[in-house]
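seq as requested:
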Amino acid sequence: MTMMERIEKMRVSDDALDLAFRKARTYNTWLPKPVPEELLRQLYDTLKWGPTSANISPARFSDKPLVVRVPKDRRVQLRVACRKRDKRRQSGRPGQ
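struct tokens:
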């Protein structure tokens, strides 16, 4: 196999490039509905293979990832504990 054939074989589809780069967005608001436990586990299993800030891949996480679910009656206390710049973000989360 020639070098060009190898490169062509590794080519990423335009749909994948769109999803990862061209049309990717960062969201900072959430829908007011719970996230199923199974989806959180699937997300964790996928993200652990992504690059890290120090280019250490795969990322090293605890075997029991930490996901904090804050009960409605404790969210006000959480918001008060947040630094001032983060309070705006906390206020926009579901259940507030």
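Residues 41 and 64 are 10 Å apart (CA to CA).
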